[in-house]
Amino acid sequence: MANPEHLTLLQWGTQRWQIWRLNNPDIQPDLCEANLMGADLNGINLADADLSKANLIATDLSSANLTKADLSLAQLRRANLSEAVLFQANLSQANLNTAILNGAELIETYLYRTDLNNAKLINVHFNGAYLYGANLSEADLTQGDLRFANLNKVNLYQADLTGANLRGTTLIQANLQNANLSYANLRGTNLSKANLTGANLTGVDLKFAKLNGAILS
């Protein structure tokens, strides 16, 4: 359960919260299981916060600092995380169905079996992120940066990866059926046993890519 004092501080408004964070840099905010549904937390500092199992449905977290925050098992459906910083955050098994993460920074973020179905991820930064088993079906990853990310067994069914940079990414046993990979950079990508049935590969760079056992038609 969330720390009542921390939750009250947050409910008093982001300005007061920001001042408290500045004056107490060594305190880790405990907002575990907090109900923050629909809250306006634009630009807030939640770095290192425990938000595991929190209700953040339709919450505005755009431009928020969530560096190294724990959001495992959190409910983030329809949340706005545009331009948010989630460097090394834990989003394991979180629900981000239809969430907006355009321009968000998820570098080295942990997204094990995270649900990102139909999420907006335009220009997102997933460099070095761990997305094993994540659901990205119908997600919009246009111009996304996924270099050296782990996308093994990820579901990218009908996802839009137009112009995305997946250089050095591992997509072993990934589902890319009917995905749009037009003009994507897949140089050096490991697509072993991946399913690319019906995928749009127009202008794709597959130089040095591994396609052992991949299904292409």
Quaternary structure annotation:
single chain
Q: What are the segments in which pLDDT stays under 50 over at least 5 consecutive residues?
A: none
Mean pLDDT: 97
Helices, by number, come to: 2
Q: Biggest sheet: strands, sense, closure?
A: none
Q: What's the count of strands?
A: 0
Percentage beta strand: under 5%
Our measurement of the CA-to-CA distance between the termini, rounded to an integer number of angstroms, reads 50 Å
Organism: Planktothrix serta PCC 8927
InterPro entries: 5peptide_repeat, Pentapeptide-BTB/POZ_domain
Protein name: Pentapeptide repeat-containing protein
Folded structure, characterized:
With 217 residues, the chain is low in regular secondary structure. It has two domains: 1-120, E3 ubiquitin-protein ligase SopA (Pectate Lyase C-like, 3 Solenoid), CATH 2.160.20.80; 122-216, Pectate Lyase C-like, CATH 2.160.20.80. The protein has two helices and no strands. It has helices at residues 4-11, 14-23. It is elongated. The protein starts with a helix and ends in a 194-residue tail after the last helix.
